[in-house]
Amino acid sequence: MITRVFLTVVAAAGVALAVPAVASAASGPVVQPLAVTAADQQAVLDYWTPERMAALTQPASDNPPKSGPDGAPWTASNAVTKTVGRLFFTDHGEDASCTATVVDSANRSTIVTAGHCVNSTDLLGNDDQWNAHSMFVPGYHDGQAPYGKFVGRFGVADRTWLENDQINGQKFDAYDQAFVVLNRGAHGIPVQDKVGAAQQIGFDRPGDANVVQFGYPRASADPAREGLPEYIGSRLAFCTGPTREWLGTPDFPDSPNQWGTACVMGGGSSGGPRLRDFNPKTGLGVVVGDNTEAGFFDAAGHACERDAGCTRYLVGPQFTKAITKPLFEAAQHA
């Protein structure tokens, strides 16, 4: 049996101030206010105490360093360590984190992430809610916020995603993508100006390509790497290589156009960018998709069960003009 596992991570917390989503049969962007007033913004900043953020970091292990194309720490200091960061939020009363990326936008305040990092159901696929206490920390590392903390102002997701039932991946997984419009940070500076960089976003790019995928995982699919700093939520990790399209299995088909490369990054890497045309010196590329779930392939490239000794890939929707571009336009002009 294939189990759909979103790559968000959670920890026990207080009650979320969630707002029920309004579903519609038509697709298209929904712009949801998150924290608009100054008082609401301060409440989010006050909520994310150092102790609460630290609770979303897993214990370290004594495993020796191990890395490869399917998972390694990102150690260069360039645009990636400015534009990619951790997205903290509360999901159905539990604190959680994902990964998000600053993309070049008209309002200079837009980040892209996974749909379930912005709007989610409970574990049974019911009680759809917008996540609360949304806060982005670009360049997060070892508990530090080198460019400050930015509170989510609006969440932007597709109406179809708001109907997600956690079961029908063939219908909903293509829509597991979203944007967050951030409030300006200290001294009224938008995030894109504060970090001094932004990634480009691409629509309808071919999925079959060499890519680099980034995330802040709090787990690794490889026991030998479990507990290393890049797999406990402390530091940025990446995977790189050629992609494969994950279509699910005959019993559990997935949406078409789900792509990714071999990768051991686990929970917390959801929403991280899949970049092509990436320059490792500058740290800049084109975001063509986001991390959402795991898919498994055998040596011949056929889909297989997760426990059948096959290779784990980190996959997610390829950004398109039909789904992604309307969301992006709504976000960058919000």
- What's the architecture in CATH terms? Beta Barrel
Shape: globular
Regarding CATH, which class?
Answer: Mainly Beta
Structural class: mainly beta
Query: Remind me, CATH topology?
Result: Thrombin, subunit H
- Strand coverage percent: 25-35%
- Global Rg: 18 Å
The H/E string reads EEEHHEHEEEEEEEHEHEEEEEEEEEH
Mean of pLDDT: 92
What's the number of helices?
A: 6
Strand order of the largest sheet: 5-6-7-12-11-10
Unreliable spans = 1-5, 9-25
Describe the sheet with the most strands.
6 strands, antiparallel, barrel
- The level of helicity is 10-25%
InterPro entries: Glutamyl_endopeptidase, Peptidase_S1_PA, Peptidase_S1_PA_chymotrypsin
Protein name: Trypsin-like serine protease
Keywords: Signal
Organism: Amycolatopsis rhabdoformis
Any overview of this molecule?
With 334 residues, this protein is mostly beta strands. It has one domain: Thrombin, subunit H (Beta Barrel), CATH 2.40.10.120. Helix content is 11%, strand content 32%. It has six helices and 21 strands. The strands form four sheets. A six-stranded antiparallel β-barrel has the order 5-6-7-12-11-10. Strands 4-15-14-18-19-13 form a six-stranded mixed beta sheet, with no helix packed on it. It is globular. Residues 57-76 are annotated as: Disordered.
Short summary:
With 334 residues, the protein is mostly beta strands. The protein has one domain (9-332): Thrombin, subunit H.
Structural key phrases:
single chain, 334 residues, mainly beta, Thrombin, subunit H, six-stranded antiparallel barrel, six-stranded mixed β-sheet, globular, disordered N terminus, Glutamyl_endopeptidase
